[in-house]
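Hi everyone, sorry if this is the wrong subforum. Our group has a chain we'd like a structural model of before ordering constructs, and none of us has done structure prediction before. Sequence below.
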Amino acid sequence: MTLDEIGLEYGTDKSSKGHGYLRHYERVLAPLRNDEFTLIEIGGLNGASLQMWQEFLPSATIVCADINPNVKQFEGGRVRVEIGDSGAPEFLAQLAARYPSPRVILDDGSHRWDHQRIAFLKLSRCSRPAASTSSRTCTRATSRGSPAPTTCRSWSS
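Answer:
Right subforum, don't worry. Here is the predicted structure as tokens:
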């Protein structure tokens, strides 16, 4: 199944019935599909994307950072939920210490640029990301094993 088909199954707003971002995510993440790595997603909302990532990335650990304690209900299996403010450098430092080498960082939390900037700066320092997104508008992809960005593209729905 494609990432969009999985997203539609779980009802995430990232699917083609919502914002339509999954086709972009899949293009970057498909090569990692069976790899063991950590994905950090800021923002858990109703848990749909957490279920989607768990199915699409069967060997990955999925970490969700959210300010809403109710998101903790989606924790289980390979999904971890950390409750905190993605705009708080202290919380992000704790997250980076607990999950020191994420390959993928997605920011779909507050949608505030200042929070996205802080999260990107704090979390990307500790990672060798395959992909990072900020506010679902920019994808940064690197070659496997390469610490420097090789491409950055923007899109809108």
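For your construct planning: The domain at 3-145 is CATH 3.40.50.150 (Rossmann fold). Residues 50 and 69 are 15 Å apart (CA to CA).
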